[in-house]
Amino acid sequence: MSYSRGYSGEGSRGFRGPTGPKPVEVGKEYEVEVTDISRQGDGIARVQGFVVFVKSGKVGQKAKVKIDQVGNRFATATIVS
């Protein structure tokens, strides 16, 4: 599951993205509702507005997820129950 567009650091446009504390942490579990599907076919949920890509998530699904990775603009997670 790769959502990187090849941007690193400031990128070609000088955009660095949001910094500071994120509302999710690697290894922690959260209750989410999948509201959309990504281009890669994974579910999209939000925790306090922060985007979380949920592997194999389906629209309308409510699930507990475990955060696998946290980036500047989104996180990735897997369903645990």
Number of helices: 0
> CATH first level of the domain at 29-79: which class?
Mainly Beta
User: What overall form do the CA principal axes indicate?
Assistant: globular
Cα-atom radius of gyration: 13 Å
Regions with little confidence, pLDDT below 50 for 5+ residues: 7-12
Q: What do we call the CATH topology of the domain at 29-79?
A: OB fold (Dihydrolipoamide Acetyltransferase, E2P)
Q: What portion of the residues fall into strands of 2 or more residues?
A: 35-45%
What order do the SSEs take from the amino end to the carboxyl end, as H and E? EEEEEE
What does this structure look like?
- The chain is mainly β and 81 residues long.
- It has strands at residues 29-33, 36-37, 43-47, 50-55, 62-70, 74-79.
- It has a domain at 29-79: OB fold (Dihydrolipoamide Acetyltransferase, E2P) (Beta Barrel), CATH 2.40.50.
- The chain has a six-stranded mixed sheet, with no helix packed on it.
- 19% of the residues are buried.
Features:
single chain; 81 residues; mainly beta; OB fold (Dihydrolipoamide Acetyltransferase, E2P); six-stranded mixed sheet; 0% helix
Compact description:
With 81 residues, this protein is mainly beta. Helices cover 0% and strands 41% of the residues.
Secondary structure blueprint with pairings:
Layout: E1 29-33, E2 36-37, E3 43-47, E4 50-55, E5 62-70, E6 74-79
Parallel strand pairs: 4-6
Antiparallel strand pairs: 1-5, 2-3, 3-4, 5-6
